């Protein structure tokens, strides 16, 4: 396993690069080391899998695992399990505030909720909590990896048991037997989680390894080709046969579905247990009896996991796997579309739905996920489902939440939901997106816990989200801005926002304008009919481009000869058309445009008649409102703020654009707008890369008869 040298390889790095505390079980070091080793040994298979267009079943564990930072684990557990127990104590009459109880336990990542009305407090402190017993509180991690979350949950459970008067020895047994559950599809991860829990329990009870107690963590099994026929001699009725076939069918692809498996029909678990444990008739050992014994072993595993997946838990906590639907193989993709239509766009969102269904009513579920579900239209149905629950707290992390993931692509958020509707509840949100490292985010969060007056902590009623089109989780929107969404006119009522031409192969059909013969370019066609009459091959193409306001990015031309005949008939080797000429009625019309990728500020530009919009050059066309009026609004700082609220990812689509609220007024001086466009146009045309270029600014004082060599061939 390790390189047999203390001077290089894994052992050398463990000795020199890892602090001594990371090996210290007393400070949680054991699970840190196990988790990082697990991630280290998945590095090579992950790198290989990332190069594939579709992931195989065997790729899923490697490409979807990511070790959760320790502080985020503590945030999730303390604000779910810890919060639940705070609710229990207060329901039993504890007069202390949630902050005081959390401080007494030493839960430094616990964020006290905002002050609520008395009515809300009554709703949340339901009668059943006053009867709660710690032995009945359960927690599940449905994609446990190496067990990081489960190990910290063990520590929090141990604290609670101690306060309830249990000994360490008894508490360790009860936690492993009754409180903690975990599932994964990776056998190695399961083994590491199993080992970590056993060692954690052994630390609290020296005799634990002799007690024959098995942790409730499992590698989700796969039934393969097993059917009820393989157990025929053990079955007593046709109904038993049907139930067994149903159960085996659900686990047919257990290594792909994992804890997404949902048992919609009731199963007689006592019957399944009887079949899996029934002793075979004594007699001569035969091949069939050996095969049946092996089948019973597999059925016992399926039974154990099936029971877990068919029940609910007090607490759910997990870092789910991430995988876009485009990377799913056909088996997983079809299953997700059928059973999770509201969240099918990404595996992390599917697990949000699944963990929610695994959580008891009035329980809490905590997760860290990509933040796309908060804003994108593809997750709007999921947001609609989640609004039935109460968003208690969110630490919006943004980029660089994980040290090993650099760049600005992966944006994360971690949050706590209560599986209950609490009307008018005021949730708490920590906006940590502007802190540029994992350590800075952690410190900023802890500062917000201590001082709720920091500028990046927000309190809001989640009912406000529904007042914004698309229902984004825009917790930082001010009351005035939310009011603007309520009374303003949607941009979609004033303009037609459209997606443009998808050529199927831009390298084949697009050129920078000066790469082709000018005589074959029509710069002035204003309709498809004019473009055909021109008999030209190339036409200006709006392809987005770099950030720029008012005017510019006139770079590309597209082959649209004879109304795009060649593009329209562009097929793959199987004869399937690859191109998609969309919204052709809007080709060659004046428009407002912006670039699809808006990682910086938002910038709107005017596009003259004569352009064909491409998919990355988003365009809005006249319907009811003068485009110049809207340009004045869209190029303000306020517009950028609103678009960042509607969709803070790097892609701003037409669906986001049409939801912009417009407050109609006549107090707009359009002469200033025209002046801004003229200035930007003059700036764009100063250089030879513009097709309306005439003279370089450095040559303006040279006599006209010496300038002919630098005239634009178009001008």
From TrEMBL:
Q: State the UniProt keywords alphabetically.
A: Methyltransferase, S-adenosyl-L-methionine, Transferase
Reactions that this protein is recorded to catalyse: a 2'-deoxyadenosine in DNA + S-adenosyl-L-methionine = an N(6)-methyl-2'-deoxyadenosine in DNA + S-adenosyl-L-homocysteine + H(+)
SUPFAM superfamilies registered for this protein in UniProt: S-adenosyl-L-methionine-dependent methyltransferases (SSF53335)
Read off the InterPro entries from this record.
BREX_1_PglX, MethylTrfase_TaqI-like_dom, N4_N6_ade-DNA_methylase, SAM-dependent_MTases_sf
Q: Pfam families, per this entry?
A: Eco57I
Q: What is its EC number?
A: 2.1.1.72
Which GO terms fall under biological process for this protein?
DNA modification; methylation
Q: Which residues form the Type II methyltransferase M.TaqI-like domain?
A: 178-396
| Domain of life where this protein originates | Bacteria
Task: Decide whether keyword Transport is in the record.
Answer: no
Q: Name one GO molecular function term.
A: site-specific DNA-methyltransferase (adenine-specific) activity
Name of the top EC class for this enzyme: transferase
Task: Kindly provide the name given to this protein in its UniProt entry.
Answer: site-specific DNA-methyltransferase (adenine-specific)
Lineage, top ranks: Bacteria, Bacillati, Bacillota, Bacilli, Lactobacillales
